[in-house]
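Box S1 | Example of a co-folding query
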Amino acid sequence: MEPFLGDRYGNPSGAHPLARDAVRAVDEAREQVAELVGCRPGEVVFTSGGTEADNHAVTGGIPVRSGVPVCSAVEHPAVLEPVAALGGRTVAVDPLGRIDLDDLRAVLADIVDRGRTVGVVSVMAANNEVGTVNDLDAVADVVRDAAPHAVLHTDAVQAAPWLALDRVVAAADLASLSAHKFGGPKGVGVLVVRDGTVLAPLLRGGGQERDRRSGTTNVAGVAGLAAALIATAADRDATTLRISALRDRLADGLRATVPGLVETVAPDGDRAHLLPGLCHVTIDGVDSEPLLLLLEDAGVFASAASSCSSGAQQASHVLAALGPARPGTGSLRLSLGWDSTGVDVDAALAAVPVAVERIRSFASASVGD
Ligand code: PLP
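Box S1 (continued) | Returned holo structure for pyridoxal-5'-phosphate
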């Protein structure tokens, strides 16, 4: 990224040598991304991140795509909000967080029965709160069968560090990525637009990105995104193995040491349907907020719900969609990344039982008062 923030600070929309240098950098990044996600360079549209890519995919741009938008109930707000704003429908998930294919079929059939068309179906490749991975090929089969003219979008933002992206992207017409989820800079992403997919521009203006996304290209960001994706793909298999083992040690250790703790979407300890980097648990008789504060004091920075909003811990729409919560439980999300280590896991394994115990003894002392 550094040259494009320094002496090669050209604007790729210009016509002079510095501009041509920037164009070359953006073209090279586009080719690298295309190769790694298994599409043509012309199908890669650089965006300002996952939120823009999701909004573009769901709305279809300006003018808005006709037809009813549909998404799963556990999508990121960057999908849920535009679907709601356009009067769309949501599809149930099962208790492990996987989209309910029967409900998807029923919702699509209901829209068609009412004489409407389905505009887009958006189903995330993997969930950001609980880590559940969806079977996108099965989703695509249902959509092609029940609403063959609908566009299929997948938010692959969380999947990108862990799953083979060519398989994810092959299942959909549109796919969103965000660089900061795989070690790249914040504020830059990709919308993959497969050839033949009708999509109007969301941002209209100078006609950059072949008229699909106007605005001066973030050259350094795009170069950083491509470099991070190359590094991620090169190490993905080894990282996945290493981090899965660490996550398993973390989850098994918490189950063994914290009474009343349940792995939210792996209650029986089977984690085959989960991303390697997520350990989401619910704990009886423990509020999330004091738990997070105690963990913070111990140097463990965790989360209860998603961290994409104002920083406040809000009730999770993802947990609500999984089914009724056990009364009096709090949730805890521990995330591991490519650079997480055994020392990090040991720190969490030491801190969580102590924090839970403190909260429980405080609660029982207060009851005694
Ligand atoms: N989609 C998912 C699944 C996410 O987890 C996030 C961010 O955390 C986004 C979309 C939004 O991406 P960005 O922050 O790049 O706008």
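The chain has two domains: 2-232, 236-368. The chain is about 40% helix and 15% strand.
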